[in-house]
Amino acid sequence: MPLAALMFTALAPTLAFAQAPAAAVAPVVAQANVSTAAALQLAERATQLAAARNMKICIAVTDADGHLLAFTRMQGAYAGCVEASIAKATSAARFAINTITFYDLARKENLAIGTIPGILPAVGGVVLKHDGAVVGSVGISGDTDLTEQKLAEDLSATFP
Fold first, then answer.
1. What superfamily does domain 36-157 belong to in CATH?
2. Residues 107-131: tens digit of each pLDDT
3. 42, 74, 96, 136: least CB-packed within 10 angstroms?
4. What range does the record give for the signal peptide (predicted)?
5. Residue ranges per domain, the chain?
6. Which helix (H) or strand (E) holds 62?
7. Judging by DSSP bridges, how do beta strands 133-141 and 58-63 pair with one another?
8. HEC profile of 106-157
9. Closest C-alpha to 68, from 95, 36, 97
């Protein structure tokens, strides 16, 4: 048998598969995300709650992928809290879990979880859910652990 015929015979199943119509596959999937307007409202609400609680904080709100949608630094908030609030929100969103879980694991299990890129074992990063799906997150920094966590949880509980 000529070489060309052998090659065709060997490749025929592959060629037939490549030309077979594929099952209907959605080329694009919709991902639920917090809207920019809702993120700005959450940041404003956080600022109001923080002021009422005598807190001076930074507030970051991200989408489900951890990208920043809204940010506020209250007058008097520490400069270092800017990056911390964003990192908390980003970590919560990208792993779809509140950062206090990482914090507790690091403390109780003595895990080096903070060495994994993107994971921040800290309090104050809380996911935002809609219909059971993570649609974003909020990160709070600039006060005590307990007050940051409480404010983040309060904001999440009122969403949407």
1. Haem-degrading domain (3.30.450.150)
2. 898 778 888 899 999 999 999 999 9
3. 96
4. 1-18
5. 36-157
6. strand 58-63
7. antiparallel
8. HHHCCCCHHHCCCCCCCCCEEEEEECCEEEEEEEEECCCHHHHHHHHHHHHH
9. 36
